[in-house]
Each structure stands twice: as structure tokens, then as C-alpha cells.
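Project outcomes to date are best conveyed with an example. Our students and postdoctoral researchers have been running inverse folding experiments weekly, and each run begins with a structure described purely in C-alpha cells. The record below, which covers 121 residues, was selected by the lab manager from last quarter's runs and is presented without edits.
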């Protein structure tokens, strides 16, 4: 049985591990949450990497927020989203829309101030 170390461990610490993730004859063994080193006081717990999470919609523009609000509304109308949940989601989306509007206005005001500042004699 040929075994090899899990690629995620640092190369210099490979010799210190008595329990590592291994692949034995093509079979993946479960990940070990605790690594025991040769000296017990130096044992350490390794936190497994979090599973990839599903990303939500990109909400960078008011159009993106409007589309997401419409999706939530349709989900509520068709019974896929609870009315209370839809209300909460819509509230959060409206707050995101306000932030986007404020950021856009702030950028416009800064551009106008720069333009007026360069005109001063």
C-alpha cells in the first residue's frame, strides 16, 4: 500500500505528522481533524477548510437590486418564498439600493467639486 501526504500540509512539517490525510490505492480516507505530533504537548488541532458556499446574486448596481427584488417578489407570489422572509429580503435589498444611490451621488459630487476646483483662478 503506497501512501502519500495530503498536499495541503507544509512541506517542512511533513515528517512531524503521525496522522495525515492519505490516499491508499486510490481510496480517499476521511480527513483527520487532530494531528498528533511525536511530542504530545505539541499536538495541535487543524481546522478543516470550510465547504464552498453558494454565492448569491451580484448586487453592484440599482438594476441588479431591482432584478433581485423582482425575483423575490415572484418567489413570494408563487409560494416558493414565505411572505415574512420576502418582506425581510426586500427590506435588506432596499437598504442596499440606498447605499448604492448614496455612493453614486457621492462620486458625482466629488467629480463636480474636482471640476469646479480646477476652474478657480
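After processing, the design step wrote out the following sequence:
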Amino acid at each position: 500500500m503506497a501512501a502519500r501526504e495530503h498536499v495541503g500540509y507544509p512541506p517542512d512539517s511533513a515528517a512531524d505528522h503521525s496522522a495525515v490525510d492519505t490516499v491508499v490505492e486510490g481510496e480517499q480516507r476521511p480527513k483527520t481533524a487532530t494531528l498528533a505530533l511525536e511530542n504530545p504537548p505539541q499536538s495541535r488541532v487543524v481546522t478543516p477548510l470550510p465547504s464552498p458556499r453558494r454565492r448569491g446574486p451580484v448586487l453592484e448596481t440599482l438594476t441588479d437590486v431591482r432584478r433581485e427584488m423582482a425575483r423575490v417578489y415572484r418567489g413570494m407570489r408563487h409560494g416558493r418564498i414565505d411572505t415574512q422572509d420576502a418582506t425581510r429580503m426586500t427590506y435588506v435589498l432596499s437598504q442596499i439600493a440606498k447605499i448604492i444611490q448614496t455612493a453614486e451621488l457621492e462620486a458625482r459630487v466629488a467629480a463636480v467639486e474636482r471640476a469646479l476646483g480646477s476652474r478657480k483662478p
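The mean pLDDT is 75. DSSP finds two helices and four strands in the chain. The training component of this project remains on track.
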